[in-house]
């Protein structure tokens, strides 16, 4: 079911008279700034809004499509963007095959005096975006402040997600070199690799999105230098997250390869010990087999022969055991 909420500012001051049917009137007023959020929309609602605000039909289709990549497209009257908010599951999933992350898509139409956001899921915390608008205190700077607040919340979520993946990889590293390696380590590693791939898909294109919106904002607003430093800081955060995901990709690959190497090393150690014990056991086997021949030989049917063969077995076994222990084969 479609859910609509929004806020209106006049002269930089918040108002309590938001009405979805009066969006065109709000946007026509010179001193008014609008934010409208549409959650789980149907095509008819968006189509009617698109006709009213002259939004691009293809952008409207992209806003409600099942799968769209992170992007920003500038049109004549507005800019359309799609980003993904990432949330870390709390508590973490008990099943090691389940994802650690929840990913939700947010699309937006940036107008000269308003921002229209479209969400397909209610799980994304849109109230955090509203609080960020108030914390920024920059509504007097125009719609660029609203867009910055939304993107700032999204990028903060990316930081939280990449930190959670970093902690999970470090936990795997601790288990990797423990004497009692936990079961399912390979499954956990594979799940983290999949989470990291999904996160990279939504994080890496954010550089283009921030760049495009920043340039388009300057074109529409004819310059708001007060926000330039905010967007520069936002772009720096996007770069840091992107670089962090690159380093995590190398780390998880190294962990996976190290796990295989350690398994090979443990297998070699086991085979070395088994080979050493097999060599020790082969000595009495060979001697008793020799004396088990069906022929006459010195010492047969005598106590001395038994003592001699037993002494040879004991001496050779002790010598081999000491030699193998000295070389750390046992």
From TrEMBL:
Any Pfam family the entry gives: CorA
Membrane topology: Multi-pass membrane protein
Record's keyword terms, sorted: Cell membrane, Membrane, Transmembrane, Transmembrane helix, Transport
UniProt superkingdom: Bacteria
A GO cellular component annotation in the UniProt record: plasma membrane
An MF annotation (GO) of this entry: magnesium ion transmembrane transporter activity
CDD domains in UniProt: TmCorA-like
The keyword S-adenosyl-L-methionine is assigned to this record: no
Keyword Metal-binding recorded: no
Localisation per UniProt entry: Cell membrane
Family: Belongs to the CorA metal ion transporter (MIT) (TC 1.A.35) family.
Designated name of the protein: CorA-like Mg2+ transporter family protein
Species lineage: Bacteria, Bacillati, Actinomycetota, Actinomycetes, Mycobacteriales
